[in-house]
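In this section we walk through a basic example: taking a raw amino acid sequence and producing a predicted 3D structure, encoded as discrete structure tokens. The instruction is simple. Fold the sequence below.
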Amino acid sequence: MSQTSTATIVGEPEVLEDEAIIALADGVEHDPAWLALKAAATRLQALQVKDGSVPEDGDRPEASVLVDTIVTSIEALAPRFPHEAEYLAASVRDFRRWQAEGLGVPDFLDSLVAFQPQQHRVDGIRHLVVFPMYTQNGSPDRHVEALVVETIWPEFIAALEAGDYGNRLFVSLRLVDFTPGYDTNSAVLFPETVAMREIPPFTWGAIFQDREAARYRRVVRTASEITKLELPEDAAQLLDDQDLAERTFVMWDLIHDRTHMRGDLPFDPFMIKQRMPFFLYSLEELRCDLTAFRESVKIERALRAQADAGEELSVIDAQLAEHAKLVQYAVIFDRIFRFAITGSRVRNYDGLGGQLLFAWLHQRHVLEWTDVSLSFDWAAVPDAVVALGDAIDELYWKSIDRPKTAHWLAAYELVRGVLTPNPASVWAEGLPREVLAGPPKGYTDLVLDDEFPLSMFYEALDKKMRPVIESTVGITAKTDG
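The resulting token sequence is shown next.
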């Protein structure tokens, strides 16, 4: 931005600086330096093996030239990202060291430590991100990936996070452009996926709400047509407004993410490096989603009560009330329409969570599938969904006093009380005494890959929905309109 245009901006110093930084990166996805970086990283991926190294002697000269291009491009783009100066300088050093050491297994610890997007949670601010990494739900290989991303941080989210829902690690992003590792289902950017020599304390985790919102809109639009579901007017608005959907997903994910570390937890909240029956992961992810649902109900009801009492809501509180209601729709529809039938049936814990929510609501007659059409008793939905969250919370609370395997068995009974197990299930039949008396591995080994198969409703829905679900691979707000 020129000195002349900067001088015409009126406002607080911090706002002036943020606006200037935002303007600098505007249109950077069309910058020749970015296009060269993206092309070089993409070509380099073809020369790398799973661990990120370039093992073939004949490939290293070309790889070295590609690294030169990446470094030159980063240096050319750096002035457009002044808030990332320390990180981009460290990235150049990491690439040069990797190059000088023969392009073995990459180590980008120094640049990872310097990358701190959570310190710049400003709506519209962009980041240039270049790391050797794998992408969750995408490439399992630690290849060099490059992204241009944009922060989504509206005022009401800033207010929410500054209040009762603090989460300093949470970063919400929009995909602008990216290399092939993100032309997938991956909707997260996590530091633990980066190639590095040691694991530092992680200070951030990012989710691409634009991808989540875009695929939600496409999937739920089709599912509601197939099931003849008449959406409430405000729920229908989510399908027509990408920005509204993105903000809704930011609110959902902010509360979900912090929930992993809160509550009566009988285990490591993220269950890292634990080999457990997959239905335990189902319940943990569902617990976090249902907490987001419960808190959204609480927020909406409190603010609606104020408005009904004649109190005029502030602009931010009005936005909170609106989005709190939309989060409730998003949790239900994403869970029952997309999660339940996305992916394979091999230990699909998110799929199981979607099945569980659908069956719970159906068995309480707040969701009905009658005359080949789906309907909800919307007045009864909030309390019914909260009741499932309460049941999982009670399981967790009781399990603090239980042995681990007893917690596993209790969790199975909770799920089994709602969903029908596979007829071949050893767990449903009752684990043999020698397994019950043995190590936890024996329990896990006897869980079937598809312990809780799809119901007839979902088998039929899956056949009709699979093409649209598959069409969301690599989706962004731009590609979905």
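Looking at the output, two observations stand out. The chain is about 55% helix and 10% strand. Residues 38 and 193 are 19 Å apart (CA to CA). In the next section we compare this with other chains.
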